[in-house]
Design a protein that fits this description.
The chain is globular. By secondary structure, the protein is α/β, with parallel strands linked by helices. α3 runs parallel beside α10, α4 crosses α9 and α11 runs parallel beside α13. The strands form three sheets. It has a seven-stranded mixed β-sheet, sandwiched between helices. The protein has a four-stranded antiparallel β-sheet with strand order 9-10-13-12. It has a two-stranded parallel ribbon with strand order 1-11. The protein contains 13 helices and 13 strands.
Length: about 375
């Protein structure tokens, strides 16, 4: 017997989420906004945070944040809104709230790893449906899985991570309709990368009472603040609220988010710059014989190379940190993921890759 035996066997078999040490590197591995606030705004924010009552639990100021997010995101007036410590916590809360015996969570793969992780942590069964070789939804397989497993939760990332693409709207609507025909089950549209995408699902949200829309301020530019939000039918959101820990959004996070929303034009300017840089990096990658870059509607680019591990190691040796995603799913064989950084960071990345990716691409999708 061991003290470890108190833990569930499946927990003992899990691996903790690993964050790469980025000290001293050009950090292009985590889909963060590379821009900082202008000095004047930094000073204003610092002064404002200095006045926050850290000795008190969060209070009614959170109501102001609710109102600000509703205005910023154009949340329909009759819909509920719940906040999470990042969208990660919202995914966890959904799993907790819906983890009845035998309940299933379903998502396309490769996709955001936390859909599966939180489902399994709460005892839900997870069903992953592979994308096509070009990372589109396999509509036939998705519809069959919905009919067979009758999922309580179906996740649709829009755009997807790590593939960065927006899936076909007709396919998405077919999947949403199939879940509705089961008579139960929620569809969660995850718009984490909405600031960089050409379209949103928001305008279609009111068509489907069983669809919830989830976003985060991480890609807006506040990855360190940890604030996600989810909107949908009031009575559905209320059930998620019931399992939300009290005071899950700190007074500092609340005030920082309010400040950022008051200066949304600055973050919109940053998003425009990132989108422009994304197109510049894509154009450069298109000229490299050893790279196949996939279309992106996010602040990251998925690239297939001949040897993902070797490219990762060579870039790291040059002081550039990216993400090797080759091991996440067979469809990602020899794929790396590049975050779009500052212009100077992207210059360094493109110079390095131009030297590394000289040999013609010989690998093909799995």
């Amino acid at each position: 017997m061991s003290l470890l035996d108190v833990f569930r066997p499946d927990v003992l078999a899990m691996h903790a989420y690993h964050v790469q040490d980025a000290a001293g590197y050009i950090k292009l591995d985590a889909m963060e906004n590379p821009f900082t606030l202008p000095p004047a705004l930094q000073a204003q924010l610092g002064e404002r945070l200095g006045q926050v009552a850290l000795n008190r639990y969060p209070g009614t100021r959170i109501n102001d944040l609710h109102e600000a997010l509703r205005a910023y995101a154009h949340v329909p007036a009759d819909m509920g809104l719940v906040l999470g410590n990042g969208s990660d916590e919202l995914i966890s809360l959904l799993s907790v709230a819906c983890a009845k015996p035998g309940a299933v969570a379903l998502a396309p793969l490769p996709g955001f790893v936390m859909y599966e992780a939180f489902a399994k942590q709460t005892g839900m069964q997870f069903v992953g449906v592979p994308l096509t070789a070009d990372f589109e939804l396999d509509t036939t397989a998705m519809l069959a899985a919905v009919r067979e497993h009758k999922p309580a939760l179906t996740y649709i990332a829009y755009p997807n991570n790590p593939t960065a693409n927006l899936w076909d709207d007709v396919a998405i609507e077919q999947i949403i309709d199939a879940v509705a025909q089961n008579g139960q089950g929620l569809v969660i549209i995850d718009e984490a990368y909405q600031p960089f995408a050409s379209k949103s699902y928001l305008d279609r949200l009111t068509r489907h009472p069983h669809v919830l829309l989830m976003r985060t301020l991480s890609k807006f530019g506040l990855a360190g603040v940890r604030l996600g939000y989810m909107m949908g039918r009031q009575d559905l959101i209320e059930q998620v609220e019931k399992v939300r820990p009290p005071y899950n959004i700190s007074v500092l996070n609340t005030e920082a988010a309010l400040f950022a929303l008051e200066h949304a034009d600055e973050f919109a300017r940053q998003a425009d710059a990132i989108k422009s840089e994304r197109e510049r990096v894509l154009a450069a990658l298109a000229q490299m014989p050893g790279a196949k870059a996939y279309p992106s509607q996010a602040n990251m680019i998925l690239v297939r190379v001949n040897d993902a591990a070797a490219v990762f190691a060579e870039l790291k040796a040059r002081g550039i940190l990216i993400k090797n995603v080759a091991g996440l799913h067979r469809l990602l064989a020899n794929c790396i993921r590049l975050t779009v950084g500052l212009p100077s960071e992207n210059d360094a990345l493109m110079t390095a890759l131009a030297e590394i990716l000289r040999e013609p691409l010989t690998v093909t999708p799995a």
